[in-house]
């Protein structure tokens, strides 16, 4: 291949790659629009802030606490709920044992329950009241298995509260648990403790700062990792 032909070949490859990326951008924008259409708000101001969502054929109302970082619905939770719903054949949750870590408001746990899973929703003790309220309000008499709410502080008393001999989870779910906080080591330890050889981790996150992104590399030293996600468009300057 001469230099002219080589340059032309490279140019064509770049054009095809740009076309693929542009197509992915358009696809991602459609997905984002579809996810946002699942969201609705109360028609009137209420004494307790809440957001509504349509997933798994149900209307879900989530009570939030704006003064608490863990009691707000973050975008990664919506992405994971959409993923569970649209990939329900590949990831069939019916009768599967599922644990969500850092469940927050409980939206992901609720959707997994509505899709047929036996769910344990976990978070810090100060978040369990609101979490229990949301889970009960949105799953009672609607699910095959009534979900449980349980305290889980990452890295603390894992064997005592979740003994490996009796706790086997088909799926571990997590949404937006990796951000700028000092407990990334404990988070990795928790993933490792809860995960058996055949456990699948479904984890949605936003790539942020270098410290958080480094966690992905550490995660990959312990687990097989497959990344699926929206195309990250570079901002225009």
Secondary structure blueprint with pairings:
Layout lengths: L2 H35 L1 E2 L9 E6 L2 E6 L11 H12 L10 E4 L6 H8 L3 E6 L4 H12 L8 E4 L6 H4 L9 E5 L8 H11 L5 E5 L5 H13 L15
Helix pairs in contact: 2-3, 3-4
Give the helix tally.
7
Task: Please compute the radius of gyration using only Cα atoms.
Answer: 20 Å
Report the portion of residues in β strands: 15-25%
Shape: globular
- The count of DSSP E runs of length 2 or more, i.e. the number of strands, is 8
> Low-confidence spans: pLDDT under 50, at least 5 residues?
1-11, 230-237
Biggest sheet descriptor:
5 strands, parallel
Helix content: 40-55%
- Enumerate the strands of the largest sheet in spatial order, edge to edge or round the barrel: 6-5-4-7-8
Q: What is the H-and-E element order?
A: HEEEHEHEHEHEHEH
Category from helices, strands and their pairing:
alpha/beta
Mean pLDDT: 83
Task: Report how far the terminal alpha carbons are from each other.
Answer: 38 Å
Explain how this protein is built.
This is Protein-lysine methyltransferase METTL21E. One of its GO terms (molecular function) is methyltransferase activity. This protein is α/β, with parallel strands linked by helices. It contains seven helices and eight strands; from the N terminus they run H-E-E-E-H-E-H-E-H-E-H-E-H-E-H. The strands form two sheets. The protein has a five-stranded parallel sheet. Strands 1-2-3 form a three-stranded antiparallel sheet. The longest helix is centred in the N-terminal third of the chain and has 35 residues, at 3-37. Residues 1-11 and 230-237 have low confidence and may be disordered.
């Amino acid at each position: 291949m001469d230099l002219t032909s080589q340059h032309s070949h490279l140019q064509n490859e770049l054009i095809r790659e740009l076309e693929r990326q542009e197509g992915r951008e358009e696809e991602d924008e459609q997905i984002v629009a579809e996810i946002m259409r699942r969201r609705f708000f109360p028609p009137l101001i209420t004494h307790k802030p809440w957001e509504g969502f349509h997933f798994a054929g149900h209307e879900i109302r989530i009570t939030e606490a704006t003064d608490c970082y863990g009691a707000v619905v973050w975008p990664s939770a919506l992405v994971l709920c959409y993923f569970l719903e649209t990939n329900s054949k590949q990831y069939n949750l019916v009768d599967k044992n599922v644990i969500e870590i850092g469940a927050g408001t409980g939206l992901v746990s609720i959707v997994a329950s509505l899709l047929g899973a036996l769910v344990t929703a976990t978070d810090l003790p100060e978040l369990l009241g609101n979490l229990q309220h949301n889970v009960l309000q949105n799953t009672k008499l609607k699910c095959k298995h009534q979900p449980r709410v349980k305290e889980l502080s990452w890295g603390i008393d894992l064997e005592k509260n979740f003994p490996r001999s009796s706790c086997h989870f088909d799926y571990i779910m997590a949404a937006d648990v990796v951000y700028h906080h000092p407990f990334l080591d404990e988070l990795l330890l928790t993933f490792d403790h809860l995960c058996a050889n055949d456990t699948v981790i479904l984890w949605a996150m936003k790539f942020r700062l270098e410290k958080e992104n480094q966690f992905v590399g550490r995660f990959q030293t312990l687990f097989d990792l497959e990344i699926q996600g929206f195309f990250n468009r570079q901002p225009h300057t």
